[in-house]
């Protein structure tokens, strides 16, 4: 790959006055000079007229790639009205920060589940030589390679993992996934003279054909997790109750009665509906 060169240019405002003075002088010589000098003055006026085409405007955060008969002569990044060789071909390249949002891609994640995924890539051109001469169309190159990097990322990581799986997931580790996406996109776009400032997922969901099944799975996982917490809390409460009854000599229970009490308390504490107690008005035994 080549490298961007600094394109030297002159102030266009200064050249306007110089060319205007030369143009007026040439017209004056054509009108007043002898015939041999008139021919020279005419040639001089034509050259000055051609030099007017050397004026061009460079906007802020813009570069003008200069070429002479196909040869790269540099990039002019100086904003304002500039002048250079009128034979130079001048191509404008925007250096502003731009966004690219991919469409919703349908791919399979690392577990083989079909998902829909999309991303937003923030980028800008930092090397105009690579952007213009190393790739055919750098804007189209950015869009295609960004989507290719997104597809590759989606197939590398699962949408979500089970409880015993410690891998990165697209859904659970958004910051880490964004960093990896930015790195992969930058690796692909570096040859086009593009710097990737940020890359983040803008859409992530299961594909429609499995969305309902995965929703039921998520709901079941949430119910199991909640039940686990309830059971852990209920066991702790039963333990505390039995220990407190024993320590304060409220009642003395044998193993069979303790088992019955534990069973009853767990039913009361873990049940979804309110318990309907049955009062025993007779002897405990």
From TrEMBL:
Listed GO MF terms: peptidase activity
Parts of the chain that traverse the membrane: 12-33, 39-58
Statement: the UniProt record of this protein carries the keyword Phosphoprotein: no
Subcellular localization: Membrane
InterPro entries to which the protein is assigned, alphabetical: Band_7, Band_7/SPFH_dom_sf
Stored SUPFAM superfamilies: Band 7/SPFH domain
Major localisation: membrane
Domain of life: Bacteria
A single BP term in Gene Ontology: proteolysis
GO CC term (a single one): membrane
Annotated membrane topology: Single-pass membrane protein
Limits of the Band domain: 53-218
Entry keyword annotation includes Nuclease: no
Protein name stated in the entry: Regulator of protease activity HflC (Stomatin/prohibitin superfamily)
Organism of this sequence: Simiduia aestuariiviva
């Amino acid at each position: 790959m080549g490298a961007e060169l600094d394109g030297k240019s002159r102030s266009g405002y200064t050249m306007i006055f110089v060319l205007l003075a030369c143009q007026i002088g040439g017209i004056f010589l054509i009108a007043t000079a002898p015939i041999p000098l008139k021919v020279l003055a005419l040639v001089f006026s034509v050259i000055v007229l051609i030099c007017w085409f050397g004026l061009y405007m460079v906007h802020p955060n813009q570069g003008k790639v200069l070429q002479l008969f196909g040869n790269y002569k540099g990039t002019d990044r100086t904003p304002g009205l500039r002048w250079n060789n009128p034979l130079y071909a001048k191509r404008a390249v925007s250096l502003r920060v731009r966004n690219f949002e991919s469409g919703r891609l349908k791919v399979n994640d690392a577990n083989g589940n079909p998902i829909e995924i999309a991303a937003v890539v923030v980028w800008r051109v930092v090397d105009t030589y690579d952007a213009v001469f190393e790739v055919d169309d750098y804007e189209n190159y950015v869009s295609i390679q960004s989507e290719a990097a997104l597809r590759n990322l989606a197939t590398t990581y699962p949408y979500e993992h089970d409880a015993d799986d410690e891998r990165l997931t697209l859904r659970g580790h958004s910051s880490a996934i964004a960093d990896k996406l930015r790195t992969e996109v930058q690796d692909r776009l570096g040859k086009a003279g593009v710097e990737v400032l940020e890359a983040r997922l803008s859409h992530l969901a299961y594909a429609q054909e499995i969305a309902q099944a995965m929703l039921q799975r998520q709901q079941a996982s949430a119910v199991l997790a909640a039940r686990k917490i309830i059971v852990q809390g209920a066991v702790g409460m039963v333990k505390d109750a039995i220990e407190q009854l024993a320590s304060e000599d409220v009642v003395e229970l044998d193993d069979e009665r303790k088992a019955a009490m534990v069973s009853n308390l767990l039913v009361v504490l873990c049940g979804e509906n309110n318990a309907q107690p049955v009062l025993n008005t007779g002897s405990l035994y």
